[in-house]
Amino acid sequence: MADVLVIGGGAAGCMAAIWAARAGCKVTLWEKKDRLGRKLAITGKGRCNVTNAAPVDELIRNIPGNGRFMHSSFAAFDNLAVMDFFEELGVPLKVERGQRVFPQSDRAADVTEALAAELLRQKVRICYNTSARHLLFRDGALVGAVSTRGERETAAAVILACGGATYQATGSNGDGYKLAAEAGHTVIEPLPALVPLVSNDEWVAECSGLSLRNVELKLYKHGQVGKKQLLDSGFGEMLFTHFGISGPLVLTASRKAAIFWRDNPGAPILALINLKPALSAEQLAQRLERDFAAAPKRHLHNALEELLPKSLIEPFIRLAGLAADRAVNTLLHREKAEIVRLMQALPVNLCGTRSLNEGIVTCGGVSVKEVEPKTFASKKCGGLYIVGELLDVDALTGGYNLQVAFSSGRAAGLAAAEAAKTI
Questions:
Q1: CATH architecture of the domain covering 2-192+361-421
Q2: Residue 62 has what DSSP assignment?
Q3: pTM assigned to the model
Q4: DSSP letter, residue 265
Q5: What digits encode the pLDDT tens for the residues 336-386?
């Protein structure tokens, strides 16, 4: 029998187990895979973006999915505390562009190994290759859990830290939602957030691998351009793929797109890419005229080489309804105007997101209305705590999601330990 049983050995689960053990409890940790922190090990492209060093208010602003719910736990264990925690565990950190915090070694393994070592120091009993089939109740009270092998672990408190439903190979396959529902919780439909978007436009696949920098991306609902139809807009980097578009700009916009498609199945979204956002239409037209005047007999394809990436030129000319071998001095005013328009509103028709499994994080999950924000205790079931991505809390890229995991895990670990001692 354990005082506290933690189900899930990811970022939130490890943190919960460590702090419950530090509080003097006997802790058991069930991990579905053969090692801890499988998803943690691939974050930040294998470098592990452990948190973000921005002020807490900015952290909250970068958590579009119920960020305010995290205020209390961030106040108790903020980003600076997370940094101190890992430094104390022997993982030196550094702050990079965008206030992103990484291990100085650029090795995510240093983070997972430090957590595993601390769990051992705190004498946490770790059961690998062990997942929960269902929670264990006796006389209406939560008393533990039963594994898929039929093993029973009784505990005074249970912390669910099973993760969401993305990157399922790491163990996050949505099992935790079933356990939470078993305890009476409402589970908001899980959707992929921070996920690439799909387009059936043939020219998009032709540009696969092309990365664009310093562009503006706007998404419009129902494929209709207008202020009321604007779904999202941003500035930065994006990428063309064989199935559609990806990259930081797209991932940030994808949450709103996923929610729109959930509520409007089959409806189109129109993406418009401004390839030259630093220039007004008039300035771009003047630039085009200068380039064309410098070599009036050049073919259009060659004349656009200084304005567009090479792999985009052919598809761009087709979208403009022009011929690649057309001499630029034969272009009509309206044709040049169309080139300018397309450079600042290149259209990509979108039809959906990639699969839930390809999302970096999950949007949706256990309703935060049914969880105490200070302790992450269930309001539906005594002795139960729910943390991390299992909750309906999701953030943008930049270390914010791991901050949620670490803060919620610590809060639940301490609260569960306190509750277990009183039983």
A1: 3-Layer(bba) Sandwich (3.50)
A2: T
A3: 0.92
A4: T
A5: 999 999 999 999 999 999 999 898 899 999 999 999 999 999 999 999 999
